[in-house]
Design a protein that fits this description.
mainly alpha; PX_dom_sf; phosphatidylinositol binding; Zinc finger CCHC domain-containing protein 14; ZCCHC14
Length: 58
């Protein structure tokens, strides 16, 4: 997992997406250590944020 690329992706998100209550709740409940221990490839939080972006972008 490339953490630097993940952080760059998060930094590129518009502020209204990061201020979304669902996004805030997700990031407040998940800690970085849990994500690092995840055996699956990729970062599950990014796909979740991407899904929410698609929904909130309409």
């Amino acid at each position: 997992m490339d953490l630097e690329a993940d952080l760059r992706y998060l930094a590129s998100l518009p502020s209204h997406v990061l201020k979304n209550d669902h996004v805030k709740k997700f990031f407040s409940t998940s800690s970085p250590t849990q994500q690092l221990q995840s055996p699956s490839p990729g970062n599950p939080s990014l796909s979740k944020v991407g899904t929410m972006m698609g929904v909130s972008g309409r």
